[in-house]
Amino acid sequence: MSYKELTIWGTLGVTIGLLIYYLTGINSLQTNGNLSQDTMVSYLYKVVITAVILEIIMQSVLAGIKHKEADLGDDERDKLIELKSAKLGHWLTSAIILMCVFLATQIERVSDRMLLPEVSDLYNIMHYLIIGFLISEIITTASKVYFYRRDS
User: Fold this and answer.
1) Structural contact between residues 111 and 79, judged by C-beta atoms closer than 8 angstroms
2) In degrees rounded to 5, what are phi and psi of residue 139?
3) pLDDT 10s per residue in the chain (152 long)?
4) How far is residue 150's CA from residue 35's CA, in Å, rounded to a whole number?
5) Could you tell me if 16 and 54 are in contact, meaning their C-beta atoms sit under 8 angstroms apart?
6) How far apart are CA 97 and CA 17, in angstroms?
7) How far is it, in rounded angstroms, from Cα 120 to Cα 137?
8) How far apart are CA 44 and CA 62, in angstroms?
9) 145 and 12 in contact (C-beta within 8 Å)?
């Protein structure tokens, strides 16, 4: 496997792991009765810091293992795959944002049916956006894997 493919697989693994880590952490806070706006924000900071650290470690290890390929630039195929994948992720991100805008305009009607009743509606919408962005990133990265595997 090429360096580019390995980094894509690594990013996919990190992103899926982060989604699971975020969801299980929020669920754990909610189950234990510790979920509040402050704990949600501090947990979100923890998730972001973990994401940065894991991505740095993964990229550094792969660059060390495949140091000759890591210095090479992208070719036309890489750029085309990047554009196709970004297009898919953009559509999903746009749909998630529109859904959250719709929720914000209908907040009086859906306020009592939000996923996290312990926090305000604004934090619920933020929760949906975070999940949506992570899923969008997973779709983008998974489509890169698909396009690389399809062309090989």
Assistant:
1) no
2) -65, -45
3) 778 888 899 999 999 999 999 999 999 999 998 989 899 999 999 999 999 999 999 989 988 888 777 677 777 888 888 899 999 999 999 999 999 898 888 877 776 777 787 888 888 888 899 999 999 999 999 999 999 888 75
4) 44
5) no
6) 23
7) 26
8) 27
9) yes
Neighbours of 123 (CB within 10 A): 18
List, in sequence order, the alpha helices (H) in 32-120. 37-65, 67-70, 76-105, 107-110
* Total count of residues recorded for the chain: 152
| Whether 100 contacts 123, CB under 8 Å | no
Distance CA 14, CA 130 (A): 15
Q: Which residues contact 101 (CB under 8 A, 6 or more apart)?
A: none
Q: What is the pTM of this model?
A: 0.85
